Amino acid sequence: MSLIEFAVAISWAWMANDRKALRTTQGFTEVPKTNVYTNKRIFCHCGRLVGNILYYTRVGEKIKVTIYYETLNAVNRKFFVEEVRPAIDYLWEIIDLDFVPYGNTGKDPENENNYICPFGDKQCLANKVQACAIGIINEGQPPTEEVKKGVALFVHCMFKNKKMEDISLVGPHCATLDLFDEWPSIAECVAGVDGNKFTDQMEAKTTPIKDSLKNDSLKNGLAVQLDSQPITEEATQDLVKAICDAFTGTEKPERCNVAKGAKVQLSVFYETLNTDTRNYFDHQLQPFYHILEDIVDIDLIPYGNTQYTDDKFTCDSDDLCIANRIQAVVVNDYLATKDGDEVDGPSRVIRFIDCMSTHKKWQNIYTAGEQCSNNYLPPDVWIHILTTATSADGDPIYLTMREKTDKVNPTP
After folding, report:
1. Helix axes of 183-191 and 193-212: crossing angle, nearest 10 degrees
2. Could you report the per-residue pLDDT of 366-407, keeping only the tens digit for each?
3. Which of 65, 103, 327, 406 could make an S-S bridge to 221, C-beta 3.0–4.6 Å?
4. What kind of architecture, by CATH, is found in domain 63-252?
5. Per-domain residue ranges for the chain?
6. How many CA atoms are closer than 13 Å to the CA of 254, on its beta-carbon side?
7. Farthest CA pair distance, the chain
8. DSSP state of 304
9. Distance between terminal CA atoms of the chain?
10. For 204-305, where are the E strands, in sequence order?
11. What CA–CA distances, in Å, run from 239 to 20, 77, 84?
């Protein structure tokens, strides 16, 4: 049995006599013997779990991972979203990332200050934005690990955003996230002489790679080099595996033992209007979900202590039942990511639940629900959510939450 075959279920404090009890069931399969998961209650060690995934003490030097690429390229976008982000999240302590945004860009033969890009001027601009971000941090004192990671997340953010070609929108948005807040400096660089200077540096790094491949262009505008090893396509197809195979330290990250594409099933059982639930979503799940999303399939079950007798649901209060049902409808309708969604389903639903839980008027479920729906869910869906939750139309959805909860049946 592989590590990732085991599933966990987190059950919340719905037990009548122990509202503060937070329990998990390690059910559904035998728990494999690993240093991360063995005999650990996932809720109690959720922060530890994230830490174990991300941070290791290593013996051995970091692997230099140089990525030659170009922006506004669908192949490159897929690579950064599916391959580079997991490497950032799970292998950061064993890699030294070097981004080279140039790809198959060329110089204008009639004006050496202009560039010609395969996907037009917008691609040239996006390349220059990233070249400036990288160039700015590398001037002067060597950047800290925090700053280097911030730039890596900035580059990933631009690729992940479906409106990447709108630099005036995506650039400031991505530059103010995570650990990197340098948009004014980037914008000044792009508009001035430094933009060309840093782009020329990227050209100078890329040209020898093209020469080594005996080709005047990069396939799909993308190439990856690990240390000084010859460039192969394997690293562009499974970057994490390529890094893990190249690492010579004494202890490989746990991620190296996980099959690509395999995920843990994480089911969160909870009830609304509950302080412990609020703390969990606000301090555990919402802040860390972006780290876990590549290895977790998440299900949210807002049912808790609800009782069902004589075809009627009862809770400690009417508002509790309605709040549970509102979130059940949201989970049912919006947890799955649909084509065309700008934000993946689990992220928006988790943010909606966290918003309802932490809203300054959280006890007024209608006000909090409407505002949080407007902030995080598709436009104009609140009336549908509320109507479904407060009518018989919501009963089948809530019964599904009951059935899932009854299957786990955590011990009080």
Report:
1. 80
2. 999 999 999 999 989 999 999 999 999 999 999 999 999 998
3. 103
4. 3-Layer(aba) Sandwich (3.40)
5. 3-54+260-408, 63-252
6. 18
7. 82
8. T
9. 30
10. 223-226, 264-270, 296-302
11. 43, 14, 7
